[in-house]
């Protein structure tokens, strides 16, 4: 069958998970917003552990495995996943140290050169992202016309480039204020942050997650993947709306009060409409599925999609309240921890055993009795961890809305506990059981042929 598992994917997931636990520990310890300021050095360090360490590495690891699946092509380069992981993980360590060394942070007295850590780390992350973009972009480029999930991924990759380049520009402007042309650094540092956020959380993470969720949920619930012209239209409205909001927002940074503001609001409106229609379509997809019972990954994937709906409402509320940072913090929290991390944890719960199964039993499939993927996990034991995770996210969101820093810390501690519980279940799934007579499968898991069949050309 030409089984291919991307050997670096699981290493990406390991580093990503460790970054997530570190960030949750910092939140539970009260080192971040709302106990500290929104732009406090410790908050910025934790935010980037989540955004670069957890979500970016999680998504890049998943994309190196799934872009060959959604394009039917081999990766353009088999060596670049390792380079990307080393550059992004190494760069992240420097970035975190650089944030902690900012004025007001816990390490302001680092030896001379400490101020270089942030731009150096940011440059390494940009380099790692560039390697991934070249590899994944070339692979996608060979598979035109692109399928719907591939379109989501291609547009998301464009936003990844914008996010990391803008982040690096901030870091350079903070380190050497005279470096950028006069009149550029001030407005960018003053009003450019929403653009970094929109490109990262909206464009890069949300578009990737929308495309990958479409593919995975259809594959594992045996639902039709082809979403027809409606699906293509939803993608165009969402991605086009984000591009319009971003470009008009950039124009507005340098010419405030211009018509750019109206265009930016139109872009936000289109994005919101696209996401709402996507949720309606995914609901239809669940209704069309042939596998009636929902496994843990699909059930809690649906909870994460519910959090995407709540994020949409929180964004609308924040837009109505103008530039009030607290209301945006709630929307970003729901997006990062409910929608994206919730989806990440629930899909890892399928992907890790699935890849483990392929590694260990893929070649024996059809020749002898092997365990089923479901034999590698114990759903009954895992379910309370997921319920606890989403419950803790709801509690933390309420704590942000009140706001109550003490309640937020307690909720973050519960999130940490629940995420660690899910991590333990993932590790347990790596310790495979032997195939027991009469309790195995000859043909492997549903979707296995689709997910691992060797690319049909390169
Ligand atoms: C996927 C990649 C990234 C995402 C999603 C992301 C996300 C974010 C978010 C959400 C914030 C706001 C934090 C807060 O309000 O507490 C932020 C701020 C910031 N980010 Fe990133 N970031 C990314 C990559 C980078 C990179 C590579 C750098 C380079 C050093 C960087 C540098 C910064 C800086 C300097 C700030 C603070 C800006 C200011 O104070 O105005 N980011 N980022």
Write the layout of secondary structure elements.
Layout: H1 9-28, H2 41-71, H3 80-100, H4 117-141, H5 148-175, H6 185-191, H7 193-221, H8 228-254, H9 260-287, H10 296-320, H11 325-361, H12 379-401, H13 405-430, H14 448-452
The structure holds protoporphyrin IX containing FE.
Helix/strand/pairing class, anyone?
mainly alpha
> What best-fitting shape do the alpha-carbon axes yield?
globular
**Share of helix among residues?**
over 70%
- Average pLDDT, rounded to a whole number, is 91
Kindly state the number of beta strands: 0
Sheet with most strands: none
Strand content: under 5%
What series of H and E elements makes up the topology? HHHHHHHHHHHHHH
What does this structure look like?
This protein is an all-alpha fold. The chain is 72% helix and 0% strand. The chain contains 14 helices and no strands. Helix 8 packs antiparallel against helix 9, helix 9 runs antiparallel to helix 10 and helix 12 runs antiparallel to helix 13. It binds protoporphyrin IX containing FE. Protoporphyrin IX containing FE (HEM) binds next to helix 2, helix 4, helix 5 and helix 7. The site of protoporphyrin IX containing FE has 27 residues, from helix 2, helix 4, helix 5 and helix 7.
Q: What descriptors fit this protein?
A:
single chain; 458 residues; mainly alpha; 14 helices; globular; disordered C terminus; binds protoporphyrin IX containing FE
């Amino acid at each position: 069958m030409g089984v291919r598992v991307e050997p670096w994917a699981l290493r990406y997931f390991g580093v990503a998970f460790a970054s997530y636990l570190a960030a949750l520990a910092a939140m539970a310890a009260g080192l971040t917003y709302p106990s500290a300021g929104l732009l406090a050095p410790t908050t910025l360090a934790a935010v980037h552990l989540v955004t670069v360490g957890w979500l970016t590495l999680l998504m890049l690891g998943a994309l190196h495995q799934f872009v060959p699946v959604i394009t039917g092509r081999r990766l353009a380069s088999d060596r670049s996943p390792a380079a990307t992981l080393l550059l992004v993980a190494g760069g992240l360590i420097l970035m975190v140290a650089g944030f902690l060394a900012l004025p007001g942070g816990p390490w302001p007295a680092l030896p001379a050169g400490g101020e270089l850590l942030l731009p150096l780390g940011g440059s390494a992350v940009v380099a790692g992202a560039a390697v991934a973009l070249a590899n994944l972009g070339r692979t996608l480029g060979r598979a035109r016309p692109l399928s719907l999930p591939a379109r989501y991924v291609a547009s998301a990759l464009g936003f990844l480039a914008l996010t990391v380049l803008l982040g690096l520009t901030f870091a350079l402007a903070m380190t050497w204020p005279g470096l950028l042309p006069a009149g550029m650094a001030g407005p960018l540092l003053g009003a450019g942050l929403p653009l970094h956020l929109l490109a990262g959380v909206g464009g890069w993470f949300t578009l990737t997650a929308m495309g990958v969720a479409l593919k995975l949920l259809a594959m594992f619930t045996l639902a039709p993947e082809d979403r027809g012209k409606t699906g293509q239209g939803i993608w165009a409205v969402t991605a086009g709306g984000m591009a319009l909001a971003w470009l008009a927002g950039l124009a507005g940074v340098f010419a405030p009060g211009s018509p750019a503001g109206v265009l930016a609001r139109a872009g936000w409106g289109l994005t919101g409409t696209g996401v709402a229609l996507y949720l309606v379509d995914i609901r239809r997809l669940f209704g069309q599925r042939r596998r009636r019972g929902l496994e843990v990954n699909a059930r809690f994937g649906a909870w994460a999609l519910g959090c995407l709906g709540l994020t949409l409402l929180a964004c609308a509320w924040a837009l109505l309240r103008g530039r009030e940072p607290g209301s945006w913090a709630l929307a970003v929290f729901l997006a990062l921890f409910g929608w994206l991390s919730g989806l990440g944890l629930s899909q890892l719960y399928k992907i890790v055993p699935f890849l483990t199964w392929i590694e260990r039993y893929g070649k024996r499939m059809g020749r002898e009795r092997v365990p089923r993927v479901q034999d590698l996990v114990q759903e009954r034991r895992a379910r309370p961890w997921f319920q606890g995770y989403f419950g803790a996210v709801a509690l933390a969101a309420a704590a942000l809305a009140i706001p109550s820093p003490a309640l937020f810390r307690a909720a973050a501690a519960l999130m940490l506990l629940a995420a660690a519980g899910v991590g333990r279940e993932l590790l347990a799934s790596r310790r495979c059981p032997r195939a027991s007579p009469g309790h195995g499968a000859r043909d492997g898991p549903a979707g296995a042929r689709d997910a691992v069949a060797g690319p049909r050309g390169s």
